[in-house]
From TrEMBL:
Keywords: Membrane, Transmembrane, Transmembrane helix. GO terms for biological process: transcription initiation at RNA polymerase II promoter. It comes from Sorangium cellulosum So0157-2. Residues 148-225 form the TFIIE beta domain. It comes from the Bacteria. This is TFIIE beta domain-containing protein.
């Protein structure tokens, strides 16, 4: 689980002295709340990322941080994070292919213009130019469309991974879990934590409850008898969110509700 710094702890990267409870090293900035990365296996911290939300400081793969020893992961988020990383990598490859094809198309246009200046225009020359440039242009457009398509797979996989981890935290909470507590555990804003809890409630993972102190929160939904056949609650919630994101894939970002964004600390 997460390695919490003690009073006489030192940075795991540069060995600088750390104050009690330090989350990052004041000298090198390394995250001290390190745990094993599901992608590279390295024990490393995470950094906020505008698209992946949090990524591994070693390999750059998407991560879902859990602060402290508040919950043990079920591991259901790992294939979802791997899917998001694969989609991001594929998008980069297709985008690079599209850029290369566009550059080649530009060179062909330049070469064709030079040939028109040197040689007299003819039907054969135009036909040759069309036969050489059209396939390259078509491939460039197709590559950019593939890159856009793979990019749309990133957010649903990430959202499903976050739902899975939020479900693990909620089911292991000793008292009704509040949005503030979940936000602190997952390093996100309270609005995003409330949205995750509401989604878990809709999918019968948690239910609204009031603590002895009168504070409203969410408690794991109790089930009597054997668990029903089918998918586990967290997986059903994850798939529900993935389906929702797939349906909203073509909606402009300005018209969509943000799901999980890292807090700045």
């Amino acid at each position: 689980m997460t390695q919490a710094p003690s009073g006489d702890a030192r940075c795991r990267v540069c060995a600088a002295a750390l104050a009690p409870g330090s989350a990052r090293c004041p000298r090198c900035g390394a995250d001290q709340r390190a745990e094993a990365c599901p992608h590279c296996g390295g024990v490393a911290g995470v950094s906020a990322h505008p698209e992946l939300r949090f990524r591994c400081d070693v390999c750059g793969g998407p991560r879902v941080p859990v602060d402290g020893d508040r919950a043990k992961r079920s591991g259901r988020e790992v294939p979802l994070l791997q899917k998001a990383r694969a989609a991001a990598s594929a998008r980069s490859v297709w985008r690079a292919a599209g850029i290369a094809a566009s550059a080649l198309f530009g060179f062909e246009v330049f070469l064709f213009a030079v040939m028109l200046l040197v040689l007299s225009a003819s039907v054969g020359l135009f036909a040759a130019g069309l036969l050489t440039m059209a396939p390259v242009a078509a491939f460039a457009l197709w590559a950019f469309r593939r890159a856009k398509s793979r990019g749309r797979d990133i957010a649903p996989a990430l959202d499903a991974a976050w739902v899975s981890v939020a479900s693990d935290v909620a089911r292991q909470a000793e008292r009704p879990l509040t949005a503030g507590a979940l936000a602190s555990t997952l390093r996100i804003g309270e609005a995003q934590a409330e949205e995750l809890l509401a989604l878990l409630e809709v999918n019968d993972v948690v239910r609204g409850a009031v603590s002895p102190a009168g504070e409203f929160g969410y408690a794991p939904r109790l089930r009597v008898g054997a668990a029903p056949a089918g998918e586990p609650e967290a997986e059903r919630a994850a798939h529900a969110l993935a389906a929702e994101e797939e349906a909203l894939a073509d909606v402009p970002l300005t018209q969509r509700t943000a799901h999980v964004e890292p807090t700045k600390r």
